[in-house]
Amino acid sequence: MYRYPASRPRRLRRSRVLRALVAQTRLSPEGLVQPVFVDENLDKGYAPIESMPDQYRYSIEGVVKHVREILDAGVKSILLFGVPGRKDPMANRAYSSDGPAQRAIRSIRREYGDELVIATDVCMCSYTDHGHCGIVVKRGEGFVIDNDESIKTLARIAVSHAEAGSDIVSPSAMMDGQVMAIREALDREGYSDVLIMSYSAKYASSLYGPFRIAASSKPSFGDRRGYQMDPRNLWEAVKEVEMDLYEGADIVMVKPGLWYLDVVRVIKESFPEAPLAVYSVSGEYLMIKAASSMGYISEDEAMLESLMAMRRAGADIVITYYALRAAKILKGVI
Predict the structure, then answer these.
(1) Do residues 284 and 258 touch, judged by C-beta distance below 8 A?
(2) CATH number at residue 195
(3) Is the pTM of this model over 0.70?
(4) Which residue of 22, 198, 228, 253 shows the fewest CB atoms closer than 10 Å?
(5) Could you tell me if residue 21 is inside a domain?
(6) Segment 23-30 mean pLDDT
(7) E strands of 88-204, at which residues?
(8) CA–CA distance, 226 with 324 (Å, rounded to integer)
C-alpha cells in the first residue's frame, strides 16, 4: 500500500525530464495517420474545406506534394478518401480504375514507394447520388440498404484499391459480412498481403457533420442509424470486433474517439492482441478549433491531450486531422 510520507508521488513530477522518464503513455508521429481528401474536380493544387479550418481537398498533383510534407514531419501513414466528379446510384466511380482514389494511390506509390503506408477508405457514400453507404433498393413503401449486394460492391472497390497499390483497405460502410467479402476477394485476386483495417465499431454519431461536407457524403434522405451502431450500446462493439477479426480484419477501429473511450478500453482489454485504431473525427477536430479560436483553450495543448487520451485508453493507432501538426510539435519543428 502507498502511504504518505514514505510515498511522495510528487517526486516523480519534479522536472520535465523526470516526468518524461516515467510517462506511462507515449505519443509518436509513427503512430499517427493523416486523413487526406483527393478531389477529382480539382485540376491542380488544393481547395480549403469550408467546414474544417486548415484542412484541404487536393488534386492528384497536389496530394503528391502534400504527402511529402507529411512524410517530412515523421508521419508515415495516410488514410485516403476520394471525392468524385460524378455520382450514380450504384457507386460505379468508386471502383473505376481511373477514379480519384485509384489515380491518387498510383501517383503516391510511384513517387514514394514504400516510404509511406497508404490506407484507403472503402465505402460508397461519396460516390452514390443518394449518399448512403450501400446499394439502395425499394422495399414496400420505402427504401432499404441491400446488405448482401452492397458487400459485393465493397469487395470490388477494395480490389481496385489493391490493384492501384494500397497497403491497407478500410471498409467503413458497416455492412454485415463486409470484411469476409473483401478478404475473400483480395485473396482470390492475388492480394493476400493487403491488410484490412475495419471500421468495426463505427457509431451513428453527431460528430461527422464537417466530414460529410468535406467528402460530399451527406445522405439525401433518412440517416445511417440502420447500419451504424447505436451510441447507447457498449457490448455490441465487442460483438462487431469479434466478427471482424474472425472474418479476417488485421486492424480494428473505434470511431469516433473521445466520446467513446470506454469502448476503446473494453475493446483493448477484450482483444489485446489485435492492433486497435481510433478515429478522432471531424467534429472533435472542429470543437478544439472553435474553442481555441475564441481564446478559451490552447489549440496545441488540447490537441495533444486529446491524442494522449486516446492512446492511454488503448489505441495503438490514432487517425487524426491533427497528425501533421502534432508530428511537427513532437519533433520540435513548431
Answers:
(1) yes
(2) 3.20.20.70
(3) yes
(4) 22
(5) no
(6) 97
(7) 117-122, 135-139, 142-146, 168-171, 195-202
(8) 34
Contacts of 101 (CB under 8 A, 6+ apart): 38, 80, 81, 82, 94, 120, 121, 161, 164
224 versus 159: which is more confidently predicted?
Answer: 159
The whole-number pLDDT of residue 123 equals 96
How far is Cα 276 from Cα 314, in angstroms, rounded to an integer? 7
Q: Catalytic residue numbers?
A: 202, 255
| Residue 167 C-alpha from the chain's centroid | 14
Cα 251 from Cα 275, distance rounded (Å): 5
pLDDT, one tens digit per residue, over 85-96 is 999 999 999 999
Residue 119: how many CB atoms within 10 A of its CB? 25
Residues 217-231, mean pLDDT to the nearest whole number: 82
How much of the chain, in percent, has pLDDT values that exceed 70? 99
Instruction: Print the domain residue range for 274.
Output: 27-330
Total structural domains in the chain? 1
Distance CA 295, CA 208 (A): 24
8 occurs within a structural domain: no
